[in-house]
Amino acid sequence: MLIEVAAVGVCGSDVHYFTDGRIGDFVVEAPLVLGHEASGVVRALGPGTTGRLAVGQRVAMEPGVPCRRCRACRSGAYNLCPDVRFFATPPVDGAFARYVVHDEDFCYPLPDHLSDDAGALLEPLSVGVWAARKARIEVGSQVIVTGAGPIGLLAAAVARVAGAAEVVVSDAQPSRLALAKKMGATEVVDASRGAGSRGAGSGGAGSGGAGQSTAREVLDIFAGREADVLLECSGAPQALEAGLRGLRGGARAVVVGMSPESHVRLPLSLVQTREIELTGTFRYANTYPAALALAASGAVRLDDIVSAHFGLDEVAEALQASRRDPLVVKPVVLPGR
Ligand SMILES: NC(=O)c1ccc[n+]([C@@H]2O[C@H](COP(=O)([O-])OP(=O)(O)OC[C@H]3O[C@@H](n4cnc5c(N)ncnc54)[C@H](O)[C@@H]3O)[C@@H](O)[C@H]2O)c1
Ligand SMILES: [Zn+2]
Ligand SMILES: [Zn+2]
User: Is CATH 3.90.180.10 the classification given to domain 2-120+301-333?
Assistant: First the structure.
């Protein structure tokens, strides 16, 4: 289908491609259109479409179209398809454009009351839904979320609506923690300060000096919590270690955040002696219907994380907005503006 793009969220991966020209093994070798969190309006139906979605229909686009033939696809784990074509992953162009062509099967009709922004942000919400599923969050679960960027915020929101009784969110930039509370965190922790100096009071038992935390204190910010689940959403190795230290025996740890390093030190003895189930996540599969339902029902309010809008001629600015100001959590590009 030919889709007129309405809104596109700026994601950290777009920023990496823009500034570094690569993410791990994915290297930009030719000009590439960025943007993969997108919504729009169907403008024309191409060959092979069924007519299920009519011209004029507003849709959210799931950015990855897999091959549907390989072993991963046939098992349902299509996020692991080696031949997936994913917006803004080299060499596939993304959605910072007036129009894109996208497969009908990966377009989801948007109800009228959902904004274009919300339709675009079903993509990062899907990352949170997938993390919650992998973590098998249950009614009453105690959950630690490290990192309060868009991914951590939405993972925390999903954890809460999945029934978690406690959702503790940390970030090393304290300015991001206010939004975490709004999105459903029951408690927030400043990851730049040690547990001994948590809260507004005077210095804790730790290293004495005002605001100075030792590396050990920072790693122990969750110590003694006995949480059931860790959703690591920062990509920072210290956050992974701190989160693991806050888990009970038999807990589950889901690594969503991607470290810039391909190899990271891990407290393996802790994983072993507590029998922690540790897994990574890569994107998501079969999450769009759930993400759409969560947004449409109002259970997760996606518009609350949108902090600024940009036109198509301002994409470069949009890509740098979060780095310039940590309060800009999710910039959105409106190509029609
Ligand atoms: N697994 C996947 O499929 C998938 C999908 C999308 C994004 N990601 C990854 O998820 C991560 C989060 O994405 P985002 O868009 O929210 O990024 P982001 O950069 O906006 O958010 C990361 C947050 O982590 C915080 N942080 C840094 N060090 C910390 C520490 N020690 N403890 C706690 N918080 C700390 C940062 O201050 C920042 O607010 C990124 O690494 C991204 O690459 C993974
Ligand atoms: Zn993204
Ligand atoms: Zn496949």
Answer: yes
